[in-house]
Amino acid sequence: MLEPVTKTIEVSCSQQQAFNIFCDMPAWWPLDKRSMSLMQAGGPAKMLTVDAQLGGEIVETAIDDVTHHWGTFTKFSPHHHLQLDFHMGLPAAKSGQVDVHFTPLSATTTRVELIHSNWEGYEDMAEMMRNGYGSSWGMLFEEAYAAACAS
User: Fold this and answer.
1) How many CA atoms lie within 13 A of 97 on its CB side?
2) pTM for the model
3) Average pLDDT, the chain
4) C-alpha angle with apex 45: 94 to 42, nearest 5 degrees?
């Protein structure tokens, strides 16, 4: 069993703001660095759509207008916790799990913990996915998301 990737940061905004910013992934996710379109169509994605609710999906529209389903919200407790089956363009049956917890430390500071687990869900790609996201969440979560919370 592969160990989960866990990233924990403190952001300078309220718990509600931290949660809302995370759900507004199109505003902070660097599609020019991480998207299916880059790998399959040779350019950054046109857009990312996030239906932030239980059962809602994250969908990328690629530069060639092909859509890629990234994941589905499987738990959604506004301002506290969300969980995704996360497969970023792979078949939905091959997915890991991303949990994000939002803990208020004060009225203006929130601890946000992201745990990406269930690597075995990616089947034969488990180790490759673990290695890739092990480093990518640093850029995506610790840098891009944290910067969005600071603005």
Assistant:
1) 12
2) 0.94
3) 94
4) 90
Hey, what are 53's tokens? 């609710």
In the block, which residue shows the tokens 């046109």? 46
Q: Are 40 and 151 in contact (CB under 8 A)?
A: no
State how far the Cα of 141 lies from the Cα of 112, in Å rounded to an integer: 10
Provide CB contacts within 8 A for 29, sequence distance 6+: 48, 140, 144
Q: How far apart are the first and last CA of the chain?
A: 38
Confidence of residue 21 (pLDDT cuts 50, 70, 90): very high
Cβ proximity of 114 and 100 under 8 Å:
yes
Alpha-carbon distance of 40 to 78, in angstroms, equals 34
Q: Does the pLDDT value for residue 23 go beyond 90?
A: yes
- Chain center to CA of 3: 18
User: Do the Cβ atoms of 73 and 79 come closer than 8 Å?
Assistant: no
